[in-house]
Amino acid sequence: MLLSFETAAYGNSSLALFDGENFVGQKFLSSGRATSIELLPAVQSLLEKACVEKADTIAVDCGPGSFTGIRVGIASARGLSDGWSANIIGISQFDFYPYHADDETKQLILLDAKAGGGFYYELRAVNAKRERGFILGKDIAGALLRPNEKAVICGEFDDEILTGTEWKHNQNIPVTDAKSVVKAAIRNISEGNEQPVEAIYLHTTIKAATKSLL
């Protein structure tokens, strides 16, 4: 059994239980501080529905996203993992986007930070480590890509922030819920892209980016 938490997405907290072939169930929760009150009873309800006492693996969205939601999700996942001796898998909001890079084209994912006027980004290239960070400014492509470099750019943004590069916009914005966390975790495992359970917080990333600009 794989139990997943999506509490990092703004206004969209949920959890789901997957038996390896099918989803046993999914529950949606209130956002913010109420998530911490509702989450564990919802876990118990899903386990009872599946007639099991625990999950073998737990997958949790580590951000970037809601500060409170990230903390609640990771703390709950770690606590249950310790109590059940279950494996725990971290995924990020970037992992909801399928891999589109190839030998000639990079993939750039931009997530609106919703504060500070910047974007989280992940840059993917074949045979290269994924580069992540936070960036401020208007010419995002010029800062992250070489002139005329081909790229598939995913996310929600205005075209005006991208100039000076040969790119196409992938308009498919993924759904961010607990079922998507399961799918992303399974995809990461199959691609050998397993990640540690480490929070990706907004305020920490903005501070680091601001220092680099001074």
Question: How would you describe the overall organization of this protein?
Answer:
The protein has 214 residues and is α/β, with parallel strands linked by helices. It folds into two domains: 2-93 and 175-200, Nucleotidyltransferase, domain 5, CATH 3.30.420; 98-170. It contains five helices and ten strands; from the N terminus they run E-E-E-H-E-H-E-E-E-E-H-E-E-H-H. The chain has helices spanning 34-50, 67-84, 140-144, 178-190, 202-213; strands spanning 2-6, 13-18, 23-29, 57-61, 87-91, 106-112, 118-124, 131-136, 150-155, 166-170. It has a five-stranded mixed sheet with strand order 3-2-1-4-5, with helices on both faces. A hairpin with a 5-residue loop joins strand 6 (106-112) and strand 7 (118-124). Helix 1 runs parallel beside helix 2 (67-84).
Give the SSE layout.
Blueprint: E1 2-6, E2 13-18, E3 23-29, H1 34-50, E4 57-61, H2 67-84, E5 87-91, E6 106-112, E7 118-124, E8 131-136, H3 140-144, E9 150-155, E10 166-170, H4 178-190, H5 202-213
Parallel strand pairs: 1-4, 4-5, 6-9, 9-10
Antiparallel strand pairs: 1-2, 2-3, 6-7, 7-8
